[in-house]
């Protein structure tokens, strides 16, 4: 730990010399209309994603006791409960289009083993299947979000999975479920029709996928009153593939409930992404430049959707997002295990603010991924676990779930490096069911504090309390020996007087405020 703190200190000094002495910045101006707001920030924006990949499920969520019995990890589940996880996307990812659900039901010792050709060619024993996943989401209080196999499956296979989890009465699949020990259906609504069908899910053109989608979606039957109606999520665009959105919305939009955009924040290139923890100020800057793209992507894809769906019936789902770094040295590169620093936390905060601000169209999202894979909430090693800085952002942002998004205007100022600039401050605000106003603020400037003067209009604010997430260095992180280097603490940098909120945001920090 000392080693990475010292390295970070050196990098910070380097940053100051690269950017020149930090000038004190003028106060940023923020206006929040606390009595207005129409759209609810759908709690599903705070969704998670658990794929059969590396140690994400096996080890991370599902483990074996000394006696050989498989079970969910109680320590991980208890920690995850604090995030109020709304939904968990499963079983992939690219794995979903290789997964045959009937391999994962019935007595565990009778289930076939397969090779996970997508992720590391490891043997998958199918001990975690449909029933185990349903137990996971039920313990978390989350909704299931199942992604069906389009790429290598059949319409019949997907329709039978739907019947297995949803049909209440006597039927071949309902009877099979009962024979496997579950009498009641699980009422699964959220249903992905394939994953990345433009790539690992089948290398399809949007025209072809639109036809295939309609074919598969037709057989997600409705079983009448009291049973689940499918919320059908179609494969959406890769990053800025606007043509995909255009064609799929035009050809299949009337049968789609959610369109699933995927965008990852990759600091370098796909072949050299960069380290999760050993990075320069330039790589810090690049991360925020790349993360800032989410605002543009959401805006442009939403504009296309507006043409085909002006009433915004179809949700833009950001079904995979987050930072993707090089795998940790010494780990299997196919397992996508990466550390998670303060930088990841700030990227998560900035991205969640984008989703909150676009709550009218973005109504579901899933960070990749839950545990031990990419930008995860928790890392595990044997019986130990560490909460990541990103976990803490998700916990701090629970206040926005199902709250009314408040209109705000912000002049964010800029953080500049070598002639380039990115917005220095990110913000979003909401009003919850009890009338409390919450504001989340992030200062991405690693060198200087930023001040904000905010007019809170429409309510009389007399009190402010808050919490802050920051750390000694921009690349500080938590590990098994030092699990609390990055954690939220009370924030005393905000005051209210005469209806104006004054905030001093320390360098590289995320703050959540409650106004009363
Ligand atoms: O999250 C890792 C992988 O990234 C997913 O399996 C895939 O959908 C995406 O390309």
Keywords:
alpha/beta, single chain, 27 strands, 11 helices, disordered N terminus, 8-stranded parallel sheet, 6-stranded antiparallel sheet, 516 residues, 26% helix, globular, binds alpha-L-arabinofuranose
Detailed description of the structure:
Strand 9 (190-193), helix 6 (206-218) and strand 10 form a beta-alpha-beta unit. The longest helix has 18 residues, at 2-19. The strands form seven sheets. Strands 2-5-8-9-10-11-12-13 form an eight-stranded parallel beta sheet. A six-stranded antiparallel beta sheet has the order 16-20-21-27-23-24, covered by helices on one side. The chain has eleven helices and 27 strands. 26% of the residues lie in helices and 26% in strands. The two termini are 39 Å apart. With 516 residues, it is α/β, with parallel strands linked by helices. Helix 4 (155-166) crosses helix 5. Bound molecules: alpha-L-arabinofuranose.
Bound heterogens, unique: alpha-L-arabinofuranose
Distance between the termini: 39 Å
Overall spatial form: globular
Q: What's the mean pLDDT score?
A: 94
Count of β-strands: 27
Major β-sheet strand ordering: 2-5-8-9-10-11-12-13
Low-confidence stretches: 1-21
Structural class category: alpha/beta
Query: How would you characterize the largest beta sheet?
Result: 8 strands, parallel
- Computed CA radius of gyration, to the nearest angstrom: 23 Å
Counted by DSSP, the helix tally is: 11
**Assembly state:** single chain
Share in helix = 25-40%
Strand content: 25-35%
């Amino acid at each position: 730990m000392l080693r990475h703190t010292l390295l970070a200190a050196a990098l910070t000094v380097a940053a100051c010399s690269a950017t020149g002495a930090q000038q004190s910045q003028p106060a940023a101006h923020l206006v929040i209309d606390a009595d207005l707001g129409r759209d609810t920030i759908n709690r599903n924006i705070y969704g998670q994603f658990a794929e059969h990949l590396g140690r994400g499920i096996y080890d991370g969520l599902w483990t074996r006791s000394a006696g050989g019995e498989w079970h969910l990890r109680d320590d991980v589940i208890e920690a995850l409960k604090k995030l109020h996880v709304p939904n968990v996307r499963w079983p992939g990812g690219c794995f979903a289009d290789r997964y045959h659900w009937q391999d994962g039901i019935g007595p565990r010792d009778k289930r076939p083993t397969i090779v996970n050709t997508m992720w590391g060619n490891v043997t998958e024993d199918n001990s975690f299947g449909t029933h185990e996943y349903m137990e996971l989401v039920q313990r978390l209080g989350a909704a299931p979000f199942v992604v069906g196999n389009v790429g290598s499956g059949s319409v019949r296979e997907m329709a039978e999975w739907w019947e297995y989890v949803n049909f209440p009465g006597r039927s071949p699949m309902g009877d099979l479920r009962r024979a496997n020990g579950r009498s009641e259906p699980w009422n699964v609504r959220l249903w992905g029709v394939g994953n990345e069908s433009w790539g690992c899910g089948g290398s399809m053109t949007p025209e072809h996928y639109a036809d295939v989608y309609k074919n598969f979606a037709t057989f997600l039957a409705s079983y009448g009153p009291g049973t689940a109606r499918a919320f059908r999520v179609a494969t959406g665009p890769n990053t800025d593939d606007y043509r995909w959105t255009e064609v799929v919305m035009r050809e299949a939009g009337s049968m789609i409930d959610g369109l699933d955009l995927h965008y990852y924040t990759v600091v370098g290139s796909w072949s050299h992404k960069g380290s999760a923890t050993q990075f320069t100020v330039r790589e810090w800057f690049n991360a925020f430049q790349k993360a800032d793209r989410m605002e543009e992507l959401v805006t442009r894809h939403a504009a296309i959707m507006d043409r085909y769906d002006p009433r915004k019936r179809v949700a833009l789902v950001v079904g995979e997002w987050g930072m993707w770094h090089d795998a940790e040295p010494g780990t299997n590169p196919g397992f996508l295990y990466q550390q998670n620093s303060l930088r990841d936390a700030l990227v998560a905060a900035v991205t969640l603010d984008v989703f909150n601000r676009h709550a009218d169209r973005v109504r579901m999202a899933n960070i990749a991924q839950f545990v031990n894979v990419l930008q995860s909430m928790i890392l595990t090693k044997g019986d130990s676990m560490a909460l990541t800085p990103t976990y803490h952002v998700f916990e701090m942002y629970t206040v926005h779930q199902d709250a009314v998004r408040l209109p705000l205007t912000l002049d964010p100022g800029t953080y500049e490096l070598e002639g380039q600039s990115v917005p220095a401050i990110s913000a979003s605000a909401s009003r919850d069911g009890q009338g409390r106003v919450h504001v989340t603020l992030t200062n991405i400037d690693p060198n200087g504090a930023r001040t904000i003067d905010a007019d809170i209009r429409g309510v009389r604010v007399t009190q402010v309390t808050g919490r802050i997430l920051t750390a000694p260095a921009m690349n500080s992180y938590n590990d098994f020996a030092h699990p609390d280097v990055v954690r939220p603490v009370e924030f005393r940098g905000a005051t209210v007087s005469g209806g104006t909120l004054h905030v001093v945001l320390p360098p590289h920090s995320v703050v959540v405020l409650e106004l009363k």
